[in-house]
């Protein structure tokens, strides 16, 4: 474990609530796993919690947003900039990296950490999601996912063993099991088949992991939008001694009312002492609500992708900096933001630069990552200080013009964990 | 305003001037060493870089080049801000020089008239009269800028008549700019440079230099010497004739020349300053500067290098496969897109102290290039700026210690292999 200091939790906060703290668990997820989860504070009202998740490269303060660096790079941001932003864990995509530059070279470069020179934690996905979403004509069988490489046309079979083998070569701190991904809008027997297959594939992944002492393998809860299937999946997967769990198969265009119910059902059945990762969630409101529902970790391409389209995230929504209205607006993106972009550059300059140079994208990307990370630090701080429900109320009031604009699913989801918004 | 900027030439070696331009900037407390290059920008921003990434470079050029081409479309915005391009673009503390064109962007011929010149911004062509040109400079507020000029003599076969017209127009533009300059409050602390034109016609070049030097200018911009306009031999002869007409105590900035061999050639003809577009162009073609500027090679190493003992197998291969391995660029750079670097875990240039070389491998940069990742431009720009800036530093040091020939030999030795494990100069 590196000397990385925990961000956001001062000793004073912990002392002032010693009674709460004494009841909290600290412990390894299971014997030998390179992961410990210390629950620093739990919200007395909702299911929100603040944890210190210690991984091989440093401790991660949760709730955490993990930016996505698909191809071994964070979209024009250097690893030093990412570290300066306070990022403790980011993602790499196994599918992309397995194709280019390939696991052999990355292994030779001392893993993805060495290849991209990132000193903190990495999480890699299984590659299955991209196969289904990016590659036409992929076929799922019990063996694995068969598809044609978009680069050289060769037929490739991605099995659970192969996915773990690539992720072992990448050397990520957290690996994800290969799951059978079906779109969250699909219903019927295919969802059930995928859920059971994901359980079988989890067992094959666990068996295939060559570095269980260095690399954590997370299970992914499937089951679509069907509560019974989700429960069955939870029941089976929590029997396995994995160091952490992800909630998968959501955030794929389903109704938000269905989405949050599946999330809260999952956290109800997941063990308290293990980290919970909600995949593909990154909008600010979704993050705050899903923290209330008990999730610890999140990832999404949205903040970095939207930056490249000129959209800067702010506590009251977003600013489309390409719009003419910002041409003479000499304020920073967010006057209260302390990121490198807001300390130096105005909306007007970014508007002008957008047409001239890629540095404009880098400035907005830096800001958007800073926004996501600082949002999560504020969330954590409020949990530690036992004022999370108040935080949620002021967050919502700032994000939306009026109570009428609050998304009803968010109001319902928060009410389900005793946070009322009036 | 009287010219405050001061050039002290401490040494002249084989025609090369070593010196310091001082009393520059708002408070007159900045200086620029010559021979030197400028930091390139687009819309006031060093291409690909943010303040944080730029800050990783320990040796930046002393002065930064802005271009009206990329700022003209923002005139109203700058006028409303009232604090100039430095504040607008959040630039670091640097001397600002403002040119008309962007040397790294195309500039179509045939758009200069007796009353106007044109620049091309992101929204298309913008036509500038001398008064609009000066209003723009007043909005940009550079520390130095050059007067409006007719540099439209770059096409091969430009006639004597056209060259004469370019000189006449440029002198007329200069007189108009000088008048407006002296009346301008915003530009009271700025220095104006005159532009020497004349295509490849010797008499016109001499006339342009002589006439420009009669005006109260702080220095000279030598325009129309782009490699596309004339051969190196013609350029050298013309530059010698031009600089012979110019006063010794004022700086000469050459536009459109940036290749290291050409820089060395032009410095010998009395040029002091160069634009910084070359490292940017190298970056844009996915290449990294890799020429040696080590003017004090370790004698033992020299012997070993001659014997090929220090070359890795792959570097020897580089030499054989030169043509296809080098790809689109000059012999001073390596093409990191080339598949030979796919598994090469060495730094881009072993021994280089730039952020890219300290942090990443050739294989990583190759990967970023083939996957079209934005970080490729960032890392290559950092390396290329560092390398180019260090080259100029080495040039000044070589002049100081009388080893210019040694430096020239190193630079001209085409794409010499990198000395392993030490920073040059």
Automatic annotation (TrEMBL), chain A:
InterPro entries: TGT, TGT-like_sf, tRNA_ribo_trans-like
Top EC class, one word: transferase
GO CC annotation: mitochondrial outer membrane
Membrane topology reported for the UniProt record: Peripheral membrane protein
Residue ranges of every copy of the tRNA-guanine(15) transglycosylase-like domain listed in the record: 46-400
Gene3D superfamilies associated with the record: Queuine tRNA-ribosyltransferase-like (3.20.20.105)
Catalytic reactions of this protein: guanosine(34) in tRNA + queuine = queuosine(34) in tRNA + guanine
Residues involved in substrate binding: 125-129, 179, 222, 249
Transmembrane segments: none
Signal peptide span: none
Annotated EC: 2.4.2.64
Location relative to the cell: Cytoplasm; Mitochondrion outer membrane
Keywords noted in UniProt: Cytoplasm, Glycosyltransferase, Membrane, Metal-binding, Mitochondrion, Mitochondrion outer membrane, Transferase, tRNA processing, Zinc
GO biological process per UniProt: tRNA modification
Chain positions covered by the region annotation RNA binding: 280-286, 304-308
GO terms assigned for molecular function: metal ion binding; tRNA-guanosine(34) queuine transglycosylase activity
Cofactor(s) needed by this chain: Zn(2+)
Complex and partners: Heterodimer of a catalytic subunit QTRT1 and an accessory subunit QTRT2.
Role: Catalytic subunit of the queuine tRNA-ribosyltransferase (TGT) that catalyzes the base-exchange of a guanine (G) residue with queuine (Q) at position 34 (anticodon wobble position) in tRNAs with GU(N) anticodons (tRNA-Asp, -Asn, -His and -Tyr), resulting in the hypermodified nucleoside queuosine (7-(((4,5-cis-dihydroxy-2-cyclopenten-1-yl)amino)methyl)-7-deazaguanosine). Catalysis occurs through a double-displacement mechanism. The nucleophile active site attacks the C1' of nucleotide 34 to detach the guanine base from the RNA, forming a covalent enzyme-RNA intermediate.
Similarity field: Belongs to the queuine tRNA-ribosyltransferase family.
Identification of the protein by name: Queuine tRNA-ribosyltransferase catalytic subunit 1
Species: Lepisosteus oculatus
Phylogenetic placement of the source organism: Eukaryota, Metazoa, Chordata, Craniata, Vertebrata
TrEMBL record, chain B:
InterPro entries, per database record: QTRTD1, Queuine_tRNA-ribosyltrfase, TGT-like_sf, tRNA_ribo_trans-like
Manner of cofactor binding, per the entry note: Binds 1 zinc ion per subunit.
Protein location: Cytoplasm; Mitochondrion outer membrane
BP-aspect Gene Ontology terms: tRNA modification
Cofactor(s) essential for the protein: Zn(2+)
Any one Pfam family match given in the protein's UniProt record, by short name: TGT
Single GO term (MF): tRNA-guanosine(34) queuine transglycosylase activity
Protein topology in the membrane: Peripheral membrane protein
Residues annotated as binding Zn(2+): 352, 354, 357, 383
Domain tRNA-guanine(15) transglycosylase-like span(s) in chain numbering: 17-413
Role, per record: Non-catalytic subunit of the queuine tRNA-ribosyltransferase (TGT) that catalyzes the base-exchange of a guanine (G) residue with queuine (Q) at position 34 (anticodon wobble position) in tRNAs with GU(N) anticodons (tRNA-Asp, -Asn, -His and -Tyr), resulting in the hypermodified nucleoside queuosine (7-(((4,5-cis-dihydroxy-2-cyclopenten-1-yl)amino)methyl)-7-deazaguanosine).
Family the UniProt entry places it in: Belongs to the queuine tRNA-ribosyltransferase family. QTRT2 subfamily.
Protein name, entry field: Queuine tRNA-ribosyltransferase accessory subunit 2
Source organism of this protein record: Lepisosteus oculatus
Classification of source organism: Eukaryota, Metazoa, Chordata, Craniata, Vertebrata
């Amino acid at each position: 474990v590196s000397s990385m200091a925990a961000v956001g939790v001062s000793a004073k906060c912990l002392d002032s609530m010693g009674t709460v703290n004494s009841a909290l668990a600290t412990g390894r997820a299971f014997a030998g796993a390179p992961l410990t989860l210390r629950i620093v504070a739990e919200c007395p009202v909702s299911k929100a919690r603040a944890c210190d998740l210690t991984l091989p490269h440093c401790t991660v303060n949760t709730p955490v947003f993990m930016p996505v660096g698909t191809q071994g790079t964070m979209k024009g941001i250097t690893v030093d900039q990412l570290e300066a932003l306070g990022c403790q864990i980011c993602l790499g995509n196994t599918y992309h990296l397995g194709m280019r530059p390939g696991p052999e070279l990355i292994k030779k470069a001392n893993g993805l950490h060495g290849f991209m020179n990132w000193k903190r934690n990495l999480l890699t996905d299984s590659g299955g999601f991209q196969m289904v979403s990016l590659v036409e004509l992929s076929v799922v069988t019990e063996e694995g996912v068969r598809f044609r490489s978009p680069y050289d046309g060769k037929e490739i079979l991605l099995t659970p063993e192969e996915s773990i083998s690539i992720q072992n070569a990448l050397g990520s701190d957290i690996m994800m099991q290969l799951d059978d991904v079906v779109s969250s809008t699909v219903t019927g027997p295919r969802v059930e088949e995928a859920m059971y297959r994901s359980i079988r594939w989890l067992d094959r992944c666990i068996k295939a992991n060559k570095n269980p002492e260095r690399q954590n393998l997370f299970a992914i809860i499937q089951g679509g939008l069907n509560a019974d299937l989700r429960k069955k999946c939870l029941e089976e997967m929590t029997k396995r001694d994995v160091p952490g769990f992800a909630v998968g198969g959501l955030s794929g265009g389903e109704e938000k009312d269905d989405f949050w119910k599946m999330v809260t059902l999952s956290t109800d059945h997941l063990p308290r002492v293990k980290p919970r990762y909600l995949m593909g969630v990154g909008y600010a409101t979704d993050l705050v609500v899903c923290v209330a529902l008990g999730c610890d970790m999140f990832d999404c391409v949205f903040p970095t992708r939207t930056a490249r389209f000129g959209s800067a995230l702010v506590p009251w929504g977003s600013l489309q900096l390409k719009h003419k209205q910002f041409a003479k607006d000499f304020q920073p993106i967010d006057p209260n933001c302390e990121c490198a972009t807001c300390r130096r550059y105005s909306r007007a300059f970014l508007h002008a630069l957008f047409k001239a140079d890629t540095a404009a994208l880098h400035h907005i990307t830096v800001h958007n990552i800073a926004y996501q990370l600082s949002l999560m630090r504020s969330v954590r701080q409020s949990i530690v200080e036992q004022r999370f429900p108040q935080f949620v109320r002021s967050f919502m009031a700032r994000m939306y013009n009026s109570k009428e604009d609050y998304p009803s699913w968010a109001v319902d989801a928060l009410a389900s964990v005793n946070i009322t918004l009036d | 305003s009287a010219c405050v900027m001061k050039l002290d030439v401490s040494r002249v070696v084989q025609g090369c001037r070593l010196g310091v331009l001082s009393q520059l900037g708002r408070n007159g407390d900045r200086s620029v060493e010559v021979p030197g290059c400028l930091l390139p920008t687009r819309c006031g921003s060093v291409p690909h870089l943010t303040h944080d990434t730029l800050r990783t470079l320990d040796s930046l050029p002393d002065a930064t080049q802005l271009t009206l081409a990329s700022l003209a479309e923002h005139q109203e915005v700058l006028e409303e801000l009232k604090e100039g391009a430095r504040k607008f673009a959040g630039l670091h503390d640097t001397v600002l020089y403002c040119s008309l064109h962007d040397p790294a962007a195309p500039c179509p011929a045939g758009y200069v008239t007796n009353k106007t010149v044109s620049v091309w911004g992101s929204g298309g062509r913008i036509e500038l009269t001398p008064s609009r040109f000066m209003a723009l400079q007043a909005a940009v507020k550079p520390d130095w800028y050059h007067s409006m000029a007719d540099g439209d003599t770059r096409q091969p076969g430009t006639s004597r008549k056209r060259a004469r017209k370019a000189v006449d127009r440029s002198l007329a533009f200069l007189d108009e700019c000088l008048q407006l300059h002296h009346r301008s409050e915003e530009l009271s602390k700025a220095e104006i440079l005159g532009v020497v034109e004349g295509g490849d016609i010797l008499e016109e070049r001499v006339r342009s230099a002589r006439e420009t030097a009669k005006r109260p200018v702080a220095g000279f911009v030598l325009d129309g010497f782009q490699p596309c306009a004339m051969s190196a031999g013609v350029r050298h002869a013309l530059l010698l004739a031009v600089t012979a007409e110019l006063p010794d105590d004022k700086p000469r900035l050459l536009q459109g020349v940036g290749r290291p061999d050409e820089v060395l050639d032009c410095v010998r003809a009395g040029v002091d300053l160069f634009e910084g577009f070359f490292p940017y162009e190298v970056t844009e073609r996915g290449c990294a500067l890799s020429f040696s500027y080590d003017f004090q090679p370790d004698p033992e190493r020299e012997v070993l290098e001659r014997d090929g003992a220090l070359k890795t197998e792959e570097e020897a291969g580089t030499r054989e496969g030169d043509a296809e391995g080098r790809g689109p660029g000059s012999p001073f750079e390596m093409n990191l897109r080339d598949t030979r670097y796919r598994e090469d875990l060495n730094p881009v240039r072993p021994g280089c102290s730039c952020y890219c070389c300290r942090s990443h491998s050739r294989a990583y940069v190759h990967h970023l290039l083939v996957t079209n990742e934005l970080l490729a431009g960032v890392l290559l720009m950092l390396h290329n700026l560092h390398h180019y800036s260090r080259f100029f530093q080495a040039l000044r040091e070589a002049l100081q210690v009388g080893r210019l020939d040694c430096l020239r030999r190193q630079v001209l030795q085409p794409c010499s292999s990198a000395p392993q494990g030490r920073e040059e100069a």
